[in-house]
């Protein structure tokens, strides 16, 4: 049994073909509950957490075929901070990246600026 099999066995995952999800959490000082991260999200749930006076909100990415989820809650020890946990990897660009990539980069007198394209 190799080390991957042992890790899968210990975590309750069966077989070598188990999908490994990527999860990352950001702790941000903010008065806003949800900050703009460039993606579009659909709220699908809200839960009261036993160990925290603050609720936890659940979101799914609105991108077609994208399975990324986001969990947002206030830090139970310091409510000045928001914990945002992303589960998965987006399979598409951010909508803002797609918008700005369609804008030509024009310059005059060495001043660079983004200008809307004639197509938008």
Characterize the structure shown.
The protein is mainly β and 120 residues long. It has a domain at 20-102: N-terminal domain of TfIIb, CATH 2.20.25. Helix content is 13%, strand content 36%. It has helices at 3-11, 95-101; strands spanning 23-29, 41-48, 55-61, 69-74, 81-87, 105-108, 111-114. It has a five-stranded antiparallel sheet, with no helix packed on it. The protein is globular and about 35 Å long.
Sheet with the most strands, sense and barrel status: 5 strands, antiparallel
Query: In CATH, what is the homologous superfamily of one domain?
Result: WRKY domain
Structural class: mainly beta
The helix content is: 10-25%
- What is the number of beta strands? 7
Query: Strands across the major sheet, in which order?
Result: 1-5-4-3-2
The outline comes out as globular
Q: How many alpha or pi helices? A: 2
Q: Helix-strand pattern, N to C? A: HEEEEEHEE
How widely separated are the two ends?
Answer: 57 Å
What is the CATH class name of one domain? Mainly Beta
According to CATH, the fold-level topology of one domain is N-terminal domain of TfIIb
Beta fraction: 35-45%
Rg to the nearest angstrom? 20 Å
Give the low-pLDDT segments.
1-18
Taking all residues together, what is the mean pLDDT? 75
CATH architecture of one domain: Single Sheet
GO molecular function: DNA-binding transcription factor activity; sequence-specific DNA binding
Keywords: DNA-binding, Nucleus, Transcription, Transcription regulation
Subcellular location: Nucleus
Protein name: Putative WRKY transcription factor 51 isoform B
